[in-house]
Structure formats: C-alpha cells, structure tokens
Amino acid sequence: MSTHMVAKHALREKSGDIIFGIAARAKERAEKIGSENIINSTIGSLLDDNGKLITLDTVYNSYKKLPNEKIADYAPPEGIHEFLEAAKKACFMGHEPKCHIRAVATPGGTGGIRHAVYNFTNEGDKILTANWYWAPYKTIATEYERGFDTFNLFNDKKEFDFESYKAKFDELLDAQGRLLIILNTPAHNPTGYTISDEEWDKIIALASDRVADGSKKVIFLCDIAYIDFSRDCCRNFMEKFGGLSENILALFSFSTSKSFTMYGLRNGALLMCSSDEEIAEECYYSCSFSNRASWSNGSRGAMQVVVDIFSDDKLLAEFEKERDGFRKLLADRGAAFWKSAKENNLPVTNYKDGFFVSVECKDPKALCERLIEDNLFTVPLQNGIRLALCAISEEKCAVAPKLIKKALEELE
C-alpha cells in the first residue's frame, strides 16, 4: 500500500534550490566577516558595487504615479491590449520579422517558457537545448512529462558547435516529427555567449531544409531575457524569422525582469511569429487559454508601466539613457573578468555579454567548495561553475579569476 498522498507524477526529491542554498551560505559568511571581504557571485540580479539591487528610477517613478486602481485591477487573461503592443516594440525594437505576430502576457520570461514546453510539444517529446543551460528549462520539462536533451554549445574553437547541434536536431526531429529548441541568446545564461548572425543563418537553413516536405515541424524558443544588457543589443537575428515555412514557428520569451529591473513584479510576454496568420491565431488562443488555466492573469500595474514608457518619447529616451549607464557598468565588469581570466590562463567559456560567465572544470562541486574557503561563492553546473558578474564589483571581477586558477591547480 502506497503511503504517498502526492500523485505519482508529482513526487519530487527532497532537496532545496542549490543557488539559493549557496547564496544563504554567502550571506552567513558576510555577516561574520563583512560583505567587503567576500565575493558573492551567486545572485542573478544586477547589483551595485555595494551589493544593493539596482532599480531603474524611470520605471519605479512611473509605477508609483499609477492610480491605485491601475495597480490593483485585474488584467484580461491575455494581458491588456496596450501592453501587448508595447511588448512587441520592446522586444523587437524595430527588428520585427516580416510575418504574423501575436503575443500574450506572461509572469516573466519563465511563463513564456512554460507555454512553449506545454503547448508546442507532445507528452514524452524531448526538448533540445545547449549543454550549458538554465536549470529551470529541465525543471519545466520534467513538470510536464517531457524529455530533455542537449547538444554541445562549444566546439574546440569555443564557437557554436553546429555539427553537434545538427546531429541532435536530426535525431530528435526524425524520431518525433516536431522539435522545440530553446536557444538562450544573446548574453546566454550561464556562459555569456551570443549566437552570431552567421551561426543563425546555418541554424535556420537547417530547419528550412528539414521541414521542406511538409511532414515535420520546428519551433524555436528564443529566450531573450538578457538582450538589453548585451553591448549592442543584437537584434538583427530576429528579422531572419520572416518569410519562412509555415512549419517553422518562432517564439520570443520577453521579460521585464532584467530589461526593466522588474524582477519580483513578474511581467513579460510570449511573442509568437508565423508566416501563416491562422497558425499565429491558433498559437494566440492556445496560450491565452493556458494563461487562464495557469495563473489567470498578470500584474496590471507592471504592464501599465511598460505601456507608459513606450507611449512617451521623452520618458522612453530617459529610460534608455538610464539603462545604458548600467549596461556600461556590466560591460566594464565583464571586461575586467575577461582580462584577468586571460592573464591567468583560465578555461573560461566564450563570454561575449551579459550577467554570467562560466569556467570549465571536471568537478564543479569540489571547485565550488574549495572556493568558499577563499570566500568566493559560485554556482556548480554540470560542466563547470557559474559566476554572476552582475552581482560583484569590477574590482572583484578582476580578483576572482586568480582565486579560481589557484583552486583549480590545487584540485588537479
């Protein structure tokens, strides 16, 4: 006789989130010896040099000016119409693909990922992403009883490993007849890599070739959570999804968490792009239904702020100027880390932009524990460790590679 009250499909291991666990240890150490004496690179939020969360004044001044009823009122399940239009502007910034585009509001980018996994794959299908990936991708796939597979992100030259991607793509597409690929770019979490326009050309050409006979379907989910903290915002690739086969669907998971520093307000949108209007409409109604079934509706106040910013040219210019300053702060930290990593011959991934960088190693957990002895707190992944450059000062970004190199040598 089973003692479980939880249904079989919902039984989970009794374990906490590893990132929050290490972050708690960092906080405890900071209370003992002072935050200035530790390097806490676990937190995936943009912090100033004193460890305080950075928030955009243009965003929160707008939020605080809203009438109470615009904050408190329900939004429609699909999101308020003006927000969905503003989300398209904020997502594409003039680089819309020439196709039919629909959008639904989601609680951050995570809601869009949930919709992609549930609505565009069948039970038992495997989802494809890179072997360096944000762990909740697998969590969401597991929740909905989907499989999960990976390709090597980097080849020997630390460029996009197209051959590994192609092999996995063909294997899964042939087996399933449809395939969802999650590509986190630009400013990939956790490596900081950005897929180039030339690499995108090969990725899209492969999909176009494989769906040409009309028997297979390919869905790309572009997780663009960090796009506005990449140095040139890298949006040219978006236009490449125009004029494609109706059997190729492009999804963009837009989030205001980083771009608008609205982490806890849980706001975003899933944008669905198809050459066929009926398919775009089908996607819209499917995801609107999922909104109602999953979280009913989103944060109206957060939606309204995006509307207000993108409907006022002066406010938009102030917002972009303010954000540009923090983008430079992050770029300076990345440059400091990269310079020190090169000087110390550290096996770092191909960092281009963004909040995170990763270091390759054989035993990530052992390396993390060893670094904690030196008051450097990192996150262990399958192939290495992740550092959140967004959370530490430029000075600490320059120091960290030296500590990591020393620890690696001791562990060899």
Short description:
By secondary structure, the protein is α/β, with parallel strands linked by helices. The chain has helices at residues 18-33, 57-65, 68-72, 81-92, 108-119, 136-143, 162-176, 197-210, 256-259, 277-294, 300-310, 313-343, 364-373, 394-411; strands spanning 39-40, 100-106, 126-130, 147-151, 178-184, 217-223, 248-255, 268-274, 356-360, 376-377, 379-380, 384-388. The strands form 4 sheets. The protein has a 5-stranded mixed β-sheet with strand order 2-8-7-6-5, sandwiched between helices. A 3-stranded antiparallel β-sheet has the order 9-12-11. Strands 1-10 form a two-stranded parallel ribbon.
Can you describe this structure?
This protein has 412 residues and is α/β, with parallel strands linked by helices. The chain is 44% helix and 15% strand. The protein is built from 14 helices and 12 strands. Strands 2-8-7-6-5 form a 5-stranded mixed β-sheet, sandwiched between helices. It has a 3-stranded antiparallel β-sheet with strand order 9-12-11. Strand 11 and strand 12 form a beta hairpin. Helix 12 (313-343) runs parallel beside helix 14 and helix 13 crosses helix 14. The relative contact order is 0.17. The mean pLDDT is 95.
Tell me the major beta sheet: 5 strands, mixed
Overall number of strands: 12
Oligomer: single chain
Low-confidence runs (pLDDT<50, min 5 residues)? none
Radius of gyration, in Å, reads: 21 Å
Give the proportion of residues in helices: 40-55%
Keywords:
single chain, 412 residues, alpha/beta, five-stranded mixed sheet, three-stranded antiparallel sheet, 14 helices, 44% helix, globular
